[in-house]
Amino acid sequence: MNLDNKAMGDRQKGLAPLENRTLWERVHEFLRDEIMADRLPPGTELQEVALAEALGVSRGPVREALGRLSAEGLVSIRPRNGAVVRSLSKEEFVEAYQVREALETFALRLAVPRLTSEDHQTLERLIDRMRDQAAAEDVAAFFQTNAAFHEALVEGSGNRKLYEIHRQLARQLGRYRMRSLALRGNLQRSITEHRELLSAIRAGESDRAVELLSEHIHIPLRRLESASPEELIELGLAEPETIKEAKA
Predict the structure, then answer these.
(1) What is the pLDDT of residue 120?
(2) Do the beta carbons of residue 141 and residue 164 sit within 8 Å?
(3) Is 90-234 a domain of CATH 1.20.120.530?
(4) Which tens digits make up the pLDDT trace of 56-107?
(5) Helix (H, G, I), strand (E, B) or coil at 77
(6) How far is CA 74 from CA 40, 60, 69, 87, in A?
């Protein structure tokens, strides 16, 4: 997939001047946000010249930004060919979800005794919103509300450092939310799981709540374990070249 210069140019407002950042840092942040939002999906080619032209900068800042994105594992540098947005491997996806489970279950144990009836009502409203969004088949909005629900649980722990780390991870996993849906099965099942989780939270049953949350996070992982190589490619969790090498 090639970079759409016009679309990229239309979004270059992300490069609005910021006095405390260098140009390459602004280019890096813009491209990173595009990748994380899946507007630059795996396989998208990022050519230095095309990017520089689309964003109205020289090639130097683009080259530095691509180098940083490569160090972060978001792109693969191809000598004399620019870069390409890379897929998150099956192993990386599993590891990220394992970390997510560890963070959220720990946060939930801290949060259950701290959450108030008002907090419970907020969580219920978020579930109701997910229900309405699922009925309207508004998947993007559903995932935004779903993320808000889980973020509220972590914030409820009262641990700011835990909250910050979780937000970083959630941002990294954001580009794979559609893959998560494909692995999970359907939105209605997710809504049911959230309601069961909230019931345990309201009852003050920390162990039960943690068990339900852990199971909720594990569902995509179990499906992933049985996915075929072709399914992994379709999910954006493997590249065709990798699969061919594995079969050779």
Answers:
(1) 98
(2) no
(3) yes
(4) 999 999 999 999 999 888 899 988 778 999 877 788 888 888 999 999 999 9
(5) strand
(6) 11, 19, 5, 8
Instruction: List the chain domain ranges.
Output: 5-85, 90-234
Token pair in block for residue 57 = 């900068």
Query: Which DSSP category does 2 fall into?
Result: B
The domain 5-85 having CATH identifier 3.50.30.10: the answer here is no
Please provide residue 75's backbone torsions phi and psi, each rounded to the nearest 5 degrees.
-135, 160
**Sign of the C-alpha dihedral, residues 212, 146, 1, 55?**
negative
Q: Which of 95, 88, 92 lies closest to 235, judged by CA? A: 88
Integer Rg of the chain from CA: 20
Contact present, 3 and 50 (Cβ < 8 Å): yes
> SS3 for 76?
strand
> Which residues, in sequence order, are bridge partners of residue 77?
83
The identity of residue 58, as a single letter, is S
10 Cβ partners below 8 Å, 6+ apart?
Answer: none
Segments in the chain forming alpha helices (H) = 5-10, 23-36, 48-55, 59-71, 90-111, 117-135, 139-155, 160-173, 177-184, 187-202, 206-225, 229-234, 240-247
Between the alpha carbon of residue 79 and those of residues 6, 47, 65, 67, 104, the distances in Å are 25, 11, 15, 12, 40
Closest CA relative to residue 45, chosen from 9, 90, 86, 12: 86
**Model's pTM, two decimal places?**
0.73
Cβ neighbours around 79 below 10 Å, total: 5
Q: Residue 187, class by beta-carbon neighbours within 10 Å (0-12 exposed, 13-18 middle, 19+ buried)?
A: buried
